[in-house]
Every structure is written in structure tokens, then in C-alpha cells.
Amino acid sequence: MNLNSALFFMPALAAGLLVASAAHGQSVLWGSKIEEVSSQKAKLKEPYAPDKALGEPNAQPLGQLSNEAWSPGKDGSNEFIEVRFIKSILAQQVTVIENFNPGAITKIELIDIKGERHQVYSNPNPGPIPDPYRTLQVKFKPEKYRTVGVRVTLNAAKVDGVNQLDAIGVANVDVQIVKQDFKNPTSTGVETVQMDSTLKNLGPNINSRYVDTHPVISPDGRTMFFARQFHPGNRGGGRDPQDIWYSKLTSGKNQTWSLAKNLGTPPNGPEDPNGLASVSANGQVALLTGIYVDGFMEPKGFSTSRHSPGGWSVPLKVQIDNFINKDPEHVDGYLATSGKALLMAVERPEGQGGQDIFVSFPKPIPVGEQPDPKRVTEWGKPISLGPNINTPGADFAPFLASDNKTLYFASDGHGGYGKSDIFYAKRLDSTWTKWSAPRNLGPVVNSPDFDAYYTVSAAGDNAYLVSSRNGTDGSKDIFRIALAPAFKPEVVTLVQGKVLDAVTKKPVRAIIHYENLITGEEIGVTESSPVDGSYTIVLPAGVQYGYRAESPDYIAENASLDATTADKYSEKNQDLFMVPFKVGQKVKLNNIFFPQSKFYLQPSSFPELLRLVKILRDYPTVEILIGGHTDNQGDPALNVKLSEDRVEAVKKYLVSKGIDAKRLSTKGLGGAEPIASNEQEETRRFNRRVEFTITKK
Questions:
Q1: pLDDT, tens digit, 9 for 90 and up, residues 541-557
Q2: Are residues 396 and 251 in the same domain?
Q3: Which partner from 410, 497, 498, 588 sits 20 to 30 angstroms from 298, CA to CA?
């Protein structure tokens, strides 16, 4: 691929910055979270606040004081700002935008996944430079460590007046990620991509002479849900405005789908326009448009329905604070695979006009309430995705890829080829209000007519969409297009398994949480099937994950996956075991990590230990025995000593968090109690473990 085809330009930054985005496998990341700052002039979201240094460069005009950039609150010799990125990266360049009064930077350090700093730039003689602004771009050979953050240090006293930083970015490619052509931007129109494939009609098993629309593909790519309008097979026959149908993939090699079937009642009714907006990672929970009252659907919001061997449950209303839709006949939604964001296309008073895309986040579980898979999730007030996404026209049909960053949506307000076109953009930070400039998916995907409802499986190989062109008997049909590598979402790993009682091996209904083991941030949440305990989670690359199940009266044995270096889609099977909360039960702490032959805890152990702290605080009478184990390699006596030292390190950490040492006993057993064969490293590693036994409840 020509390197230039990996670049796109940001016409939204018309005053000057042209920012390149890398192709698949190449990444340009901008700061998404403030980790630490030496001083600040203002609070969050106010002019000059630290969060103004997050996301892509946006302080305009350059060379002048801007509300959209960070200013230190002091003129000290050691002012600094430290940002984190949305994932880790094998960096080979860092870029800092000094949009006003440049020259004060003395040091730039990369932060790796262990929290260690690596200096890549030093200037012992800071001072004013003749330019009114500067893009400080530092390139270096990529090291073995992966970068999760950057710290920039300034000597503000050496440059008179206010210092301002607009953005901090890293890249794993050797390209110019910011071009300083501020007076003559090369593009002011809609930038498009060029697909190297053609649209393929899914054929008569999916499409009919009636309108077939709104495909929803399950993350594993094996089930497709879609809607049919006024079809004789609808629950109310040909007069029924819309029902939900589904089909199964019978041949992945040839992309062959089974003959579509009606989803049944519920959720379909004989008179209402029923629609499925998205489906959970394991395909067991559906987000539906509308709310259901006495068996009838009212177009006032969203509902959820759960699948069981007997069919789909009666839909329950999704509770959203301050939900408003001024045009209830037009509503779209999408529940992120992570379960942490609910996207909706509605018309609200604070919108740009017509349908706009908003996001809502789950409200936290009340303090003191135990996790319960039967608890209904409540959602906060919707927040606009901002003017980069929303226009005075209609912006609708949102679909968030499994990487939790790549947004596809339809719009008639961004310009393009016809009535509505499909666009995509990348989320730049954790606020969900900063996005890259939307890119039109080009003339292969978009036409002079209606094009919308774009969906992609977790593997990212194929996309599905609705179009009016060449449909059966002139109707809207569902099409497939193979994605070129440059236009795929970022790489993910799909993890499937069952949640089981560790003693009886019977399935347990549970909530599954997964988190970044380095930062402790919860990335996503889902639930297991109440029938067979099956679950599915999708983990974006670049992060070391821990995941666990939670259910009343059980303690989870956590699992982990290191996806920091994942470079292609993969699938993994991993059962999760739940230990009954009883005296005598033993719980493995799978996410406790030590360097080889050492006994000090690595930072990735802290999320697991903090959960143990919480258990001991919630149950103040519980006492535990912490046991340490090694494999059988080396001197047995040294192995016993190493295991003793490791469990003492765990005890010391728990005591440092306020747990009474009298409640904690320890025992180092070396290699005396293996749980797997010591013949090969593949199984021997399971013997190196820390676990605890409940001795008093």
C-alpha cells in the first residue's frame, strides 16, 4: 500500500492543522486522560484547564493565547503535565503542540505499562524561540517497552508570558503526523476513503421484494438480525409495518446465510414497527427501539429483551435520565459491546437540529449494594457527541465497532453523494465529545440514493449496510462489503466461555467485569447466560486485561489476557470459576504478578489485591490464610523461601490498606502442592500461584 493512502486530512481544523491517521496496524494516539499536572489556571473544562491538552490539536488561531490549550498556573522551573492514552503503543515518535510562547520544554518522558519513565528529549537551555508556535516532534527507534503515557516538563520561568500546550501525541509510524500548513489547508471538503471491494447483495435468504433494513451483526459474526417492512411473514401479515428477523451464518468461507426467520413474539407484535438496535456480545440481550406497554410498542425510548430456550422475554424499559426525543418516529440506538456506553440518535432541544447522536453512561451501583445480575441498569443524561459528528441535518444509525473507538453513522448533513451517506470517525479521548473529522466511506459504499445502517463484526473483515441501489424489485436490501486493512476497526480479541460454580461445575448467572490491569480502569461489563452460564467479551488490543465474574454469595477467581502486542483478530476460550463464600473454600488469585524469582509485587497486581481489600472490608469478621506456591524447578528450600516472601508481600500490601494483620495468616509451600504437570512450561506456570483460604467467616 502506498504510504500516502494511510493519511487523511482534517478539514474541520480549517485554520491549519492537518493531522494524519495511520492505516490498520499503524496508530496515532492523542492524550485521552490527565494523569497528573504540576499546576493549573482553571478547573476541568474551563479555559486553560489541563484537559484542554487532550485530544487532537484544536487551539486556533495558532500563535495566540487560546482558551483551548493548557496553561500552567505557575512560572516554576519544573512545571509538567502527564497524559495517558486510550491504549498502549510501541512508540517511535512523540509530538507536542506548543501553540503559544514556545521554547520552555526541558524534557519529554514516555511512561510504560509498568509506570516507569523513559526520557526521549532533553533541552538544558530552554528559552524563547523566534516562532510564534511550534510542533515539537521527536523521533526515535522503537524500544521493547510499550508506551501508555507521556510527561512533558517545562521551565516556565525561562519564557516570558503565558506558556500553552495544545496537544500531546505518540505514533508507532515514522510519518509526519502534524503538518504546519496553517494558512493554506489542502482540503476544505469532505474527505473520502476508497474501498478496494464491491457491494454484494446477500441474496434471497436475507433480502426480499420488501424493505429489508437495519442489519445488526453479533460480535462473533455468526448471527444477523434485521428488520422487514410490510412482509407477509410479519406477525401481523402484510399490514404489519415492521418485524425483527434473524439468520445464521452457515458457511463463513462463502458467507452463506440461512433462510431468515421471524424472531417471534415477543418482541414482535402484530401492529407495531418493531426494531432491534443492537445485541450484546453473547447474543443473549437485545436493545430494542420503543417501549412496550401491555404488549404494544410505543416509540418513546428503548427496551431490552433477554433470550432463553423458550424465546425472548417481554421487553423492559431502559431507564435514561432526562430522555427527550422531539421526533419519536425517528430513533436509533446502539449499546456498545463494552456495555459502558449507550448511543442514541434522537432530536433533543440542545442538539444541532434534527436527529443528533448522543451518548449515555451507566449510573454507578449505589454504595453498599452488592452486584446482582438481575439488577436493571440505569443510564445518565445523554451527552451530545459534539459538532464534529452532529450537524443541522439528520445524523443517525450509530454503530460503534468492538474496538470501542471507531464510530460509523449515517448523515445527510455532512455532504456527500446522495440523500444520506455513511461516515466514520475515531473517538479521541474518554469524554466522548472529541472525535476525528468524519470521513465519507466513498462512492463504493455511498450512492446518490439512501445508504445507512453500517455494521461490522468483531473480526472486522466484512461490513453490512442498507442501500436502495439494485435492490430486489427496487426495494431496500442488505449488502456486504469486504474491508481493506486500512479501513478496519482496530484489532480485538473475542473471549468466550462459561461461568461455573468451582465446586459443582454448574452454570452461574453473573456479571462479568473486565479492566485494564495497569490503570485499574474498568473497560467493560456484560452478563452470563442464566441458562448455561455462557459469556462473551471483546477486548481491544494494546491493553493487559483482567476479567472476573460477580454474583451474590460467590468469590470470583479472576482471569487475565495480555493483549498489549496483539496485531490480528483472535478468539480465546476461558471458563470463569466462582467459589462459594464458605469456610474452607480456596480462591486462586490469578492476577497477582511477580518478576521471575523475585518477591516484590508488580503494579498489574494491584487491581486484584484492591478487590480482596474490598471483600475484607465488606466482611470485617472474615479471616484468611494466604498460601504461596511455586513450580518444582530449582532448589526446593529456595522455592519455599520464595513462596514465603511472596505471600508476606501480599500481606504487607493488605495491611497497608487498613486490613488488621491478625486477620491474615500466611504459608509458603514451595512446589509441594502442584495443580498441573511440571513437565512442560505450558502447564508448569499454573503451579506458580497465590491463593487464599477462608478460615473464619
A1: 988 898 989 888 898 88
A2: yes
A3: 410
